[in-house]
Design brief:
Strand content: under 5%
Radius of gyration: 41 Å
Shape: rod-shaped
Structural class: mainly alpha
Distance between the termini: 141 Å
């Protein structure tokens, strides 16, 4: 004899399949949300580390540029040179 399934049995099987798909989809979604949370956290950590590194580099640049010969130093030195040349010219003109 053939086993015949009734409409109610088929509906029950379909409902069980949908329940299984729903549970599987829920598990996948929880996993994806967890992965996204971890990824966002790791991204924030990397951003913080990069920000700190940029600040360190900026500080190094400031300290190096403070040691360089600046335009203000050049103006001062040229003024001193011009003053000394002026003094020498006056000495030469007196003689």
């Amino acid at each position: 004899m053939e086993a015949r399934t009734t409409l109610g049995e088929r509906r029950g099987d379909i409902r069980m399949l949908f329940d299984y798909i729903h549970k599987l989809a829920s598990i996948v979604m929880v996993g994806l949300l967890g992965w996204a949370g971890v990824s966002i956290n790791q991204g924030n950590i990397q951003i913080a580390l990069l920000t700190q590194r940029v600040e360190q580099i900026a500080e190094q640049m400031r300290s190096v540029s403070a040691e360089k010969y600046s335009a203000a130093d050049a103006v001062r030195d040229f003024a001193l040179r011009d003053q000394r040349l002026g003094n020498i010219e006056r000495i030469i003109q007196r003689e």
